[in-house]
Amino acid sequence: MTDPAEATADGTAAWRVTVDRGACLGSGICAALAPGLFVLDGERSRPLRGATEPDEAVLDAADSCPAAAITVAAGTEVVGPRP
Questions:
Q1: Where would one find coiled-coil regions in this protein (predicted)?
Q2: Are strands 44-47 and 15-19 parallel, antiparallel or unpaired?
Q3: Alpha carbons 71 and 42: distance in angstroms, whole number
Q4: Is the pLDDT of residue 4 over 90?
Q5: What is the 3-state secondary structure (H, E, C) of the chain?
Q6: Per-residue pLDDT tens over the stretch 27-83
Q7: CA–CA separation, 31 vs 37, rounded Å?
């Protein structure tokens, strides 16, 4: 069963989004591709919230990160970055 805190409006599992701030280069690509989810905080990116509804823009941000610092997970399955 999905934790209500990690569910979308339709009850499906939300995606958890994390940024490895130690690996982040601060390029800002993620904030440009998904400005509602990522923000530059000093010289590094961070997610504005830890969970989001599934969205292609989130995967595009993870795929485009030059440092591969963004991880997107649905439950225990990593869905981004894509191979």
A1: none
A2: unpaired
A3: 20
A4: no
A5: CCCHHHECCCCCECEEEEECCCCCCCCCHHHHHCCCCEEEECCEEEECCCEECCCHHHHHHHHHCCCCCEEEEECCEEEECCC
A6: 999 999 999 999 999 999 999 999 999 999 999 999 999 999 999 999 999 999 998
A7: 7
